[in-house]
Amino acid sequence: MLAFHVKWKSPLFLLAITGMLAFSATAGSPVKPDWSLLSVAMVCAAILFLYWGFEQSRASTREIAVIAVLAALAALGRVTLAALPSIQPVTFLVIVTGYVFGARTGFMVGSTAALASNFFLGQGPWTPWQMFAWGLAGASAAYYRSAFPGAGKWAMVIFQFTWGYLFGCIMNIWTWTAFVYPLNWQSFLATYATSIWFDTCHAAGNALFYLFFGAGVIKVLQRAKKKIELSRLPVQNISPPNNHN
To answer: Are 101 and 218 a contacting pair, CB within 8 Å?
Structure first.
């Protein structure tokens, strides 16, 4: 259990440490650093570290199949509703996946869904940021469940709603570093203000998806989880009775 927490928290420390090192290395330099490139590199490093941790975990074939199916469904929902402003069923599905299956599966479904859907909506330097943001949404749902095991329906609605703004905040960091100058708190707040309407639509969509579909989807995922857990149980060898006595 300790190794699991270390593996899935280390990328956040890696991201922070890399950022501090990059800032320290460039603070006194006369050459202006490319913060857009540095930010993408940091996020890519964190994602690769998490994928390496998943590969080392030796997940079962059934767990990999569940991740593939849920990521495909989330990607399909995003592509289908792409015409609507910031209505993202992928966020809702990723959060309930992490809530049921845990941080590892939640992150993998979120990051894979972002990568897969962008083959239809367009790949670019924003893709790693989307992978990281949706992955964190899934992983955070597992920690939310551990911290508040008795939380009810409306607490999860608030959690879903909040992630609409958190996702927008993470993506605004990419926009801020890529297109805004100078980089300061004033310019970041201005960048965030321009996306507040889209983030509100995202948050409201998350809450509505959970209100209408949350209970049903969680029940389906819990059944799938039970089947996976049963498949891991060792088969007991029962010897036939000895009739020669």
So the answer is: no
pLDDT band for 38, please (50, 70, 90 cuts).
confident
Q: Which domains does the chain have, with CATH numbers?
A: 32-228 (1.10.1760.20)
Residue 27 has pLDDT above 50, yes or no: no
Amino acid symbol at 42? M
Cis peptide before 149 (omega within 30 of 0): no
Handedness of CA 201, 90, 165, 173 (dihedral sign): negative
Amino acid letter, 40? V
Tokens representing 234 are 């060792």
pTM greater than 0.70 (yes/no): yes
* CA-based nearest residue to 106, from 145, 147, 151, 79: 145
Query: Using CA atoms, how far apart are residues 38 and 19, in angstroms rounded to an integer?
Result: 8
